[in-house]
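To make the argument concrete, we let one protein speak, a sequence paired with a row of C-alpha cells, as a model reads it:
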Amino acid sequence: MTKIEYIVTNVRERIQQSEYQAGTKVPSIRAAAKHYGASKNTVAEAYERLVAMGYLQARAGSGFYVAKNYQAPSVQHSQQLAQALNTVSLLREQLVQDYEVRIGDGRPPEQWMEEFNLQHAARLTQQQGPTGFDYGYGNPWGFLPLRERIARFLNERRLPAEPGNILLTHGANHAMDLVARQLLQPGDTVLVDSPGYYPLFGKLKFSHVHLIGVQRRKDGPDVEDFEKKVKHYQPKIFFTQSLAHNPTGSNLSLPVAHRILKIADQYGMYIVEDDVFADIMPAESPRLATLDQLERVIYIGSFSKTLSASLRVGYVTGNNSLVRALCDLKMITLVSTSDFLERVVCGLIDSGQYRRHLKKLRDNVRQANARALNTLSAAGLDFPYGDAGGGYYLWARWPGQDEQHITRQAASAGIFLAPGSLFFPQRGVHPDYPAFRINIAYATHQRFLDFLARKLG
C-alpha cells in the first residue's frame, strides 16, 4: 500500500467510525503531513481522492471538511474510482504543477512547436467546404475536407481509408473512450501493453473493466505472453501502441505483427492500435492496421502530439459498421467535435505549414534522441528498450535506488519525473523497477544532469 492509499484508508475509517463527525474540519494538510510522516503533496492528493469519493468537501481558503450529507458510495464504486484516480496522478502533475525541468513530461517542448500562421489557416477555412464556417455544430462525422486529407495520409500508410469511414474526435483519448463505451461492458476483460499508456488504464478501471497486461519487448508485444493471456482470459480487445511506444519508445516488428494478428483472428478479438506519432514515423513502418486492412483492427490517430496539445483533433477508423456505430455514440455523448478547430488544422495542412513543421520536428527528435542516449548512458542510466524509436520517450532503469524516493527528491529540486510503476496496469508488477519515462527533449537539461551526478556518482 502506498503512503497516499494508507492516508485515504485511515481517514475514511475515521469518518466511518464517527471519529471525524459530518461537517467538522479534518486536520490541515500541514498537520496531517507531520502526523503521517508524509509530504504535503502526498496528503493533498489523499484528501483530493477523499473528496472525489464523497467523504470530504474542500472549502477554498479554509481547508477540508467531512461532507455534511455524506453517504458512503458502494464499495465497488469507491474502489474503482480510487484505482482510476491513482493512475491519473501523473497526468495531474503534468497539467497542474509547475516544474522548471520536465523530464517526465509527455508533451514536446514549446520550442519544438512552430509559430504557425493561424490567421492564414483561418482564412483558408472560409474556402473549405460548400458553405464556409457558420457557427453551427458541424457534421457529427467531422469536417469533410479534413477527413479527406487524413484519408490521403492513411492511404500513404497503405490503409484502406476513405472519408466515409473516418470519424473525427476530440483527440486520441476521446477515440479510445468511444471504442470502450461501444464494445465493452462492466466486467469485461481487455489486454493492454505493460508498461503502457497509463491514462487509458484509469479510463478502463473507472468503467469496471478488467485490465491484463501483456509484456512489452523491444520489437513489440511479447507474443508468447499475448497468446497465453488470450487463451486464459478470452479478452474482447487488445489496446496497443505499435510505433514510438509510450513509455518505452519501442517499435513493432513485422514478424511480431503477423503473429499478433493471427492469434487475434483465431480468437475473434478486436485490436485498438494507437498511432499518435504516425505523422513523424515512416509511412512504411509495420502497422497492425495495414496488415489487417481494418478488418478487426481499429486505428486511432491524433494531431495533438505532432501539432499542438491545444488543438484537440483526433480520428478513428475501422470497418464501416463499427465506425458508424461510433459516430452515433459520439452524437449521444458529445453531439459533435469542434468544426472550427478541424477547419484550422485543415488550413495548416493545406497551407503547407504542417508538412514543413513535421520535417523540423523529425530533425529535433533525431538530434535529441542521440544527445539523450549518449549523455544519460554516460551518467549511469540503462535503456533496456534502446532509443526513442522516432518518438519522444526513453525508458530508463535507475540502478539500485527506490523509485518513489528518487521522484520525491527530484520534485524538491524542481524536476518532474515520471515513475515507471504508474505505467503498469497492475500495481506492484514492475519487472524493470526502478525505472522512469524520460522525455528526450528535456533529458540533457543541466539541472537534471547535476541531479544524476549527485545520486549516481
